[in-house]
Design a protein that fits this description.
The protein has about 260 residues and is of the alpha/beta class. It has 2 domains: about 170 residues, 3-Layer(aba) Sandwich (Rossmann fold), CATH 3.40.50; about 70 residues, no CATH class. It is built from 10 helices and 10 strands. The strands form 2 sheets. A 6-stranded mixed beta sheet has the order 6-7-8-3-9-10, sandwiched between helices. A 4-stranded antiparallel beta sheet has the order 2-1-4-5, with helices on one face. Helix 3 crosses helix 5 and helix 3 runs parallel beside helix 6. The longest helix has 18 residues. The chain is globular, with a radius of gyration of 18 Å. The two termini are about 30 Å apart.
Length: about 260
């Protein structure tokens, strides 16, 4: 049984088919890629998994339970973390504030607005957990830094840290290399591999950077025009003629 899965997902917008009979699964501790050209339906599927959209047909499951109708915050409390394609950080707050916010929301047992009103002062144990996580991601000593002082690469890592503060069992990464140069992307990939191996959470990576997908993931799904055209071990998927025709063109990628 897969940890996170979607079966038979259909989604339409004003009569236009965005997804048709799509399935996907991520097992505990697995690194899975999701690729496809612009307009393939990747973001729509991602949002169905997260609860930002409800599919017209099909089911989303987590740890054997149907979560198709659960709101986003309840999915987060079950153990689904995420990062954003566009950096979603808040000016006027510190690096540690972002992690504390995520931790309090994850620990809350009431409505989201109640959790927000009850944040209060952080406990020493909470500060220690934040700082340990920042240290593990190469951001040690930066807890008190204002978000505005960070580079884009550091901001991406703060988003990862914020997701990990929720103690997720699976993390959905939405184009984490967006805006990064090759050196920053490589450093991010190395950090993700290390921290994922240490903590054992599953990963679903939506990404346009094919080299990152090839080096980071074990399995990959490929969408085109809202339909799944192939899936399997990443090296095999990257060599599939249908994938090259739909997405890679003549680009040859050597998976590491």
């Amino acid at each position: 049984m897969s940890l996170l899965s979607a079966q038979g997902i259909d989604k339409r917008f004003a009569g236009i088919t965005a997804l048709e009979d799509v399935h996907i699964a991520v097992d505990e501790g697995e690194r899975v890629g999701l690729i496809g050209p612009n307009g393939a339906g990747k973001t729509t599927l991602f949002n169905c998994l997260l609860g930002l959209l409800r599919p017209d047909r099909g089911q989303v499951s987590f740890d054997g339970g149907d979560i198709t109708r659960l709101p986003v915050y309840r999915r987060a409390r079950l153990g689904i973390g995420r990062t954003f394609q566009r950096v979603e950080l808040f000016s006027g707050s510190s690096v540690r504030d972002h992690l504390l916010f995520a931790h309090r929301i994850r620990q809350g047992d009431g409505a989201l607005w109640k959790d927000l009103l009850g944040l209060g002062l952080p406990k020493p144990a909470e500060i220690d957990r934040c700082d340990e996580l920042l240290e593990s991601l190469g951001l040690g000593g930066m807890g008190d830094e204002p978000i505005e002082a960070l580079s884009l690469g550091q901001s991406r890592l703060v988003e990862v840290a914020r997701a990990l503060m929720t103690q997720p069992r699976v993390v959905l990464l939405d184009e984490p290399s967006s805006g990064l140069d090759r050196a920053e992307t490589t450093a991010l990939a190395d950090t993700l591999v290390r921290i994922q191996a240490e903590q054992g959470f599953g990963v679903l990576l939506v990404e346009h950077d094919v080299e990152l997908v090839a080096s980071f993931t074990e399995r990959t799904y490929v969408l085109d025009f809202g339909r799944l055209i192939t899936d399997g071990p990443t090296p095999e998927v990257m060599d599939d003629d249908r994938v090259r025709a739909a997405y890679l063109g003549d680009l040859a990628v050597e998976p590491s």
